[in-house]
Specification:
The protein has 94 residues and is α+β, with helices and mostly antiparallel strands. Helix content is 28%, strand content 22%. The radius of gyration is 14 Å and the shape is globular. It starts with a helix and ends in a 17-residue tail after the last strand.
C-alpha cells in the first residue's frame, strides 16, 4: 500500500496518536520538508493542534481550502485506522 501513496498526486502525512509524524510521501516532503520523527504540534498553531487532537480523539474529519502563492489547495485531515473501521463513524447500510 505504501507504494500507492508514493505515486499519488497528493501530499500525505501520517502521524501516530500522539502527533508524531511516522510517514510522509514524496509530495509531502517536497511541500513541507522532512518531518518524520517530529511532532505535528511543532508546526501548527495552538488552535490547529487542538483540532488535530480532537480529530484523533473523536475520529472526526476536518476539510477546508487554503490559498498559497496563488494556488488554491484542498486540505483533508482525517484519522486513518490501520485495523478495524470504528463503529462510531457514520455509515450507510445497504
Amino acid at each position: 500500500m505504501k507504494d500507492f501513496f508514493e505515486n499519488v498526486a497528493v501530499s500525505m502525512t501520517v502521524c501516530d496518536l500522539e502527533g508524531k509524524v511516522i510517514y510522509q510521501n514524496v509530495k509531502a516532503v517536497e511541500a513541507l520538508g522532512e518531518a518524520r520523527g517530529n511532532n505535528l504540534q511543532e508546526c501548527h498553531q495552538p488552535s490547529s493542534w487542538d483540532k488535530i487532537q480532537q480529530m484523533l480523539r473523536e475520529g472526526t474529519t476536518n476539510a477546508y481550502t487554503i490559498e498559497k502563492r496563488g494556488v488554491r489547495k484542498l486540505i483533508y485531515q482525517t484519522p486513518w485506522y490501520e485495523e478495524d473501521i470504528p463503529f462510531n463513524m457514520a455509515a450507510e447500510i445497504g
